[in-house]
Task: inverse folding
């Protein structure tokens, strides 16, 4: 309100008791170091946790004589990261930073560190597609649900149909984060502009149909998600968008919980999908083999149907062992797949890279 | 991450040292009271500021023996409101609440209090339109800018063209907030479902083309905004969407700063707009009359062009006197307009009501 008044009535400036502080947070330096600042004169302890940090690491800020806490990181690899402060134990987003990483249950601040390594998902001067926010009736939940749809540059000008990727988020997110934070739309725009990807449609659905406090309801999430995807999402998307409605042109991929949903919904519906992408997810016990025996014990049939089965995980991911087990199970069963053991942990910089790598392979 | 592990591997639950707390924040009671809670054992003072509060009021939370602060409000009128905590002077969004009111410079938490009075902007079981997020090249900034577009239910199924409202946000917001928080899309969906509004397209643009630290640059914001609107936004929207491209079917409205932009860009371009809506904005000195003399001193011509000139302001708005002056200037000049002096302050509950009232009048 005060800022508004200043913009509207600059003459009021003279009457303002205090000017806006001159410091910024975050301040990204040209060498990739970042300074974070927080005004908190009464706090006893302020720490910073960021997505680029390994494990449960954090940085401790120090306070100056005016109550301004600050810390400068070592150089951070160019990318888009979430972060938050812990102020005497209270999670606090950066009050001076409008940039957010939103989520299904909580929110963080975000910092964008530009650089060549992040150029593949940066906003560049290339033709851009559109992100659409849709509400659709779900048979599985008997209510309205939301999804995001990416259409490529030129979609509106033409009449042609496009292949489609159904792209799933992780447990902490919603249908919004693959575009708002994962930059799926910019990754696709950039690949298309470089001639590395033929235009496609990406449907980003909400993976929490059984979002509830009741654990018994939550336990049915994968089942409800699969029903929702098959019975509601795909028919809705194919009716509203010019999608090639056949399995050879339909892919499914997801990260973490969405990787598990990709396995669960994908392997049970190989009549509908010809490509699967599993990012940072795996299996932990024998239940998976039993559940999908029909597919796993018929490798010739399965391999004929699955044109691409891409599995990737970072070696620092807390699900690494589970991903290895998924890979080894597929080896054992003779199911063809791409196994990508990469650097990285359970973070969005990894998932952006995975999407960038997988997109051009989906409909080759 | 911990939550993710729990969802994926419920067996890990037994190994978790502490269960999730059982309390929630916010907790909306059936009578419209709301309890807000924050775990902050070391804090000395926690207050709450919410959009429903008059002036600079706030509520003080009290701490229990476990370090959990809480306060319960009196009954609050049904609506969607922003709020935040001040924890020893540090602005803090509610860590237990994913719902946000985002902004151009900072973010707040949000609480949705359902009820009949808010049903006009609630998510209801009616046909829903689509919100599109677009990037477009701006001649005024020589860069890419973002805008949001609402298309009504049935848009994709048909071939017809629609009238268009260009809808502008306030100084604290971006092109995103009219749909993410103002619920312009749901307000239109509900009106259309009730037969009170003929389908239209709403283009929500970004009003900060001169967003910069340099005050000299910021001073050019209105000029750059007007150029951007006329030279880039309207041509982009009319090329990409099935819009009736003539002044009788083109309206412009905005709140606060966007109301000022509506006056500045609208009155200078009456060959392009036939309806204007000014929400919670006014004029403060003689400069306005001089600036728009050509229009104000030719009431017959102006009145023939302006089918609707709607001005509304809440009596508790800090811009109330300016809005009255705008109304009185138009009276003095003989410019026909609708003057709506309403209850309320400079808040989104007022602006949602204004949009709901104005939409059906735009293209009658």
Result:
């Amino acid at each position: 309100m005060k800022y508004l008044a200043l913009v509207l009535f600059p003459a009021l400036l003279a009457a303002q008791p205090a000017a806006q502080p001159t410091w910024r947070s975050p301040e990204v330096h040209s060498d990739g170091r970042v300074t974070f600042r927080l005004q908190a004169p009464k706090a006893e302890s302020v720490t910073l946790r960021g997505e680029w940090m390994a494990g449960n690491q954090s940085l401790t800020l120090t306070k100056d004589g005016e109550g301004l806490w600050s810390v400068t990181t070592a150089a951070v690899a160019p990318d888009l990261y979430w972060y938050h402060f812990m102020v005497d134990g209270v999670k606090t987003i950066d009050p001076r930073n409008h940039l957010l990483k939103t989520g299904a249950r909580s929110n963080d601040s975000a910092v964008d560190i530009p650089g060549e390594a992040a150029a593949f998902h940066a906003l560049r001067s290339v033709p851009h597609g559109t992100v659409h926010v849709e509400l659709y009736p779900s048979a599985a939940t008997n209510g309205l649900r939301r999804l995001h749809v990416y259409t490529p540059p030129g979609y509106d000008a033409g009449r042609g149909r496009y292949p489609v990727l159904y792209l799933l988020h992780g447990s902490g997110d919603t249908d919004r984060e693959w575009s708002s934070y994962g930059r799926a739309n910019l990754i696709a725009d950039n690949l298309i502009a470089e001639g590395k990807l033929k235009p496609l449609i990406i449907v980003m659905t909400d993976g929490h149909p059984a979002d509830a406090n009741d654990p018994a309801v939550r336990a049915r999430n994968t089942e409800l998600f699969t029903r929702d995807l098959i019975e509601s999402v795909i028919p809705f998307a194919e009716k509203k968008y010019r999608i090639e409605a056949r399995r050879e042109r339909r892919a499914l991929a997801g990260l973490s919980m969405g990787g598990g949903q990709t396995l669960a919904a994908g392997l049970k519906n190989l009549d509908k999908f010809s490509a699967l992408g599993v990012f940072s997810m795996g299996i932990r016990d024998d239940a998976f083999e039993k559940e999908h025996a029909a597919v796993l014990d018929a490798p010739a049939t399965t391999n004929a149907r699955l044109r691409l089965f891409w599995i990737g995980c970072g070696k620092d991911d807390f699900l690494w062992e589970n991903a290895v087990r998924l890979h080894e199970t597929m080896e054992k069963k003779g199911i063809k797949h791409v196994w990508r053991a990469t650097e990285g942990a359970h973070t969005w910089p990894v998932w952006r890279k995975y999407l960038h790598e997988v997109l051009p392979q989906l409909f080759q």
In short: The mean pLDDT of chain A is 93. The CA atoms of residues 46 and 87 of chain A lie 5 Å apart. The longest helix of chain A spans residues 221-240.
